[in-house]
Every structure is written in structure tokens, then in C-alpha cells.
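1st attempt posting a full record on here, be nice pls
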Amino acid sequence: MDSDREWMERALALAYRGLGQVWPNPSVGAVVVRDGRVVGEGWTRKGGRPHAETVALDAAGGAARGATLFVTLEPCAHHGKTPPCADAVISAGIARVVASIEDPDPRVSGQGFARLREAGIAVEVGAGAAAAREINLGFFTRLAEGRPMVTVKLATSLDGRLATHTGESQWISGEAARQEGHRLRADHDAIMVGVGTVLADDPSLTCRFPGSEDRTPVRIVVDSRLRLPLTSKLVIGARTIPTWVLALADTDSLRCRALADLGVEVLEIPSEEVGRPDIRQALRLLGERGLTRLLVEGGGRLVASLLAVAVVDRLVWFRAPIVIGGDGIPASAAFGVDRLAQAPRWRRIGTVELGDDVMETYARTA
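the predicted structure (as C-alpha cells):
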């Protein structure tokens, strides 16, 4: 029904609000509709609790009895840190549930829908399914592969250069593109960069657009040998914003202690070969810590290491209308492609004009 699509679009918009704030939980939106009007709505709150259904049902109160609940993910059926949402839906007297997709978490996986149907509630599944899967791709990736979804963000010239040969990169993209980049940060649980980017640019990796100041995610630096300067912006702000460093297990213990004393958490990861961290193991470690959505902002060596092991799920590419030339710094370092058949393939899923810049979003095809 057209009205069902309308209400589900509203629930999906609510789910989107929680991105970057709810890990390790999924971001869910819920709308309670009775007699053609909204009587309650909600989304998963910061830290993953309370769940969207609980927020929406509490807002609806007695008006939920006999109403329809539109929800972007199957209501949970297990006891965790909160009671099962399926039980809350039943207790509220909801007559019909329209859900986007089943929750693949083995603790749920259809059991929520079964419990609702056993209670006599009509259940329909599938409205807004594609959008709901995209919103919670990070949650699903962590369940399936034990790692967060990886989004690589690049801001380059038309010929794919991050900076001139002298390292100058500020600013390749325009103001509108940079603001969109900050919004992208707010939608992720963590931002990752290589230590080379920190040494070159001394970034703060914060969200800096109006209303986003409290949404800065965890900041992560891949730094095998702990070269991160103690005077860098990341270290100086580590007591305020969680800051993690991924380092090899045999790094200088005194340096580890100095960073820890300043609020930086050093996480040890194994090496893939001498002097190089195992990026797969690093991602699994981040998954174990609950991260579901990871935004990678460079540099070229880190991007190459992720592409080489096929763990980049989304590419967000900002292209500025300038050409830097072959001596500029490339968006990705070499990662061993000898034949075109070896090159990662992508499907473009979005294009947005931002002033003179263009933002393209790509999904990995395999």
C-alpha cells in the first residue's frame, strides 16, 4: 500500500539518525500509526539503548492498542541488556507489524516474527528492505565476518591525486564537499588513518558542522612503530575523544606508556610480514570491540592494504575539478595488480554535485 511505503520511509529516516551512535547494536527506526496518524515514533538511542520499538511504544502509550508498528528491523526476541522488544510489542496491544527485514543475529533470526505471530499479530516483511540493509550493512558485516563495514573516503583531483608531490593537499575539495565529509564522519563509529597522514597533516579528525560536535567518532591511527607525535592534535585531544592506536606487538613499551598516560589506548596487532601489520586481524580486533562502521580517510598505503585483501565495502570519492599530474601523490599505493581481472570492481550507487566537486559512492561487487 502507498501509505505503508510512506510510513516505512519515515521509519527508515529515523533509523538513519542513529548511525555512528549505536554500536555495537543496529540502528533501527520505528513508527506507530493508528487511524492514519502517527501516535509514537523513535529510533535506537546512543549506545544502542533503549531500542527504537521501546521508544516509539512509550511515546504512543495507550494509543498503541490496535495500531500498526512500522519498524526497519525484526524486533528482538532475546533477553540482553534490555527485555525482548517482541514482548513489548505484544504487551502494547499492537495489531499489525510491518517490518523491513529479518534480523540475522542468531539470537533473533525469525524468532521475533514467530513470537508476534503466535500472539495473533499480523506480520508483513519486506517494505523498504534494500534501504534497511544499507543502513545496517555494518551490523550485518560484523555478524557475518567479525569486522566492521569499511568505507574508504577519498578527496582527489580528477586524475586521482591526493596531494601535490610536495604533500600539499589543503584544500583540493571545496567547502561543500568538506562539509559533506564531516557529515560522513558523524555516520560512522570510528575514523581510521595511517600514521603517515598524521605526520603530514596533523588532523584532528573531528566532526565540524553545526549540530555534529558531539558526534565525533572514535579516532584510530595505524602506527606500527608508534611514531605518533605526543604533541599531535589527536594525542592532545585523547582524553576528550576516544583515540586508539594500532601497533605491532613488539613496539617500544616506554612509548606505549607515554601515549597511555596522555589518554591514548594502544592496541597490539600481529604482523603480516616483517614490519607490516596484519590488516585483517586489525579489523577483527575492531569488530571484537563492537565497531560496526569504519571510515578510512587515508593515506595511500593504508588504502592499498585494505584493497589488497578485499575488505573495502564502500568507496566515497570526492573529485575536484583540477588536474595535478603524475608526480602528485596517488589515492592508493601499489597493491599488486598485474592484470585487469585482478582489479577490484565497483558499482556506482550514488552521485551528488557539491558546488564544483562531485561525490560518487561505490559498492563493492564481489
